[in-house]
Amino acid sequence: MGAPKNLRLPAEFDQWFPEGLYLVGQITPVTEYQSQEDRARNRPVRPRTDEVSGLPLYRGTFADPSAEKDREKSVTVEFAARVQPVPPPGVPGVPFRPMVLEGMTVQPRAEVSGQAK
């Protein structure tokens, strides 16, 4: 039996990221796909929203030093929030910003190439 659609499971940050998590770059809004035809017609870019809460989605790329495989060392996280999340200020001389995610949930996704996303 597959997981019910839009299933969200609570997740403890320390259990998933025992060595912490580090923001690489910025947190940016997630937008809906726009075709070449849409762009040619100057249609506005629409923000993508969370299916359950209806809140706008934001995305950030993070480094996970506790990941065992190289392909898992970079993690993309999506946030559903009324306003764009603002990361804490950076540490001088360090290119990454340490982060702690509160109220974290995980959502099973369709399987791609033999592994769950």
Description of the structure:
By secondary structure, the protein is mainly β. The protein has a domain at 9-29 and 59-106. It is built from two helices and eight strands, in the order βαβαββββββ. It has helices spanning 13-16, 36-40; strands at 9-10, 21-29, 57-63, 74-80, 97-99, 105-106, 111-112, 115-116. The strands form three sheets. The protein has a four-stranded antiparallel sheet, with no helix packed on it. Strands 1-6 form a two-stranded antiparallel sheet. It is globular. The mean pLDDT is 85.
Q: How many E-type strands? A: 8
Helical content (DSSP H or I, runs of 4+): under 10%
| Residue runs with pLDDT of under 50 for 5 or more positions | none
Assembly of the depicted chains: single chain
Shape from CA axes? globular
> How is the largest sheet built, in terms of strand order?
4-3-2-5
Profile the largest sheet: 4 strands, antiparallel
Number of helices: 2
In percent terms, what proportion of residues is strand?
25-35%
Average residue-wise pLDDT? 85
List its salient traits.
four-stranded antiparallel beta sheet; 2 helices; mainly beta; two-stranded antiparallel ribbon; 117 residues; 8 strands
Please give a quick description of this structure.
The chain has helices at 13-16, 36-40; strands at 9-10, 21-29, 57-63, 74-80, 97-99, 105-106, 111-112, 115-116.
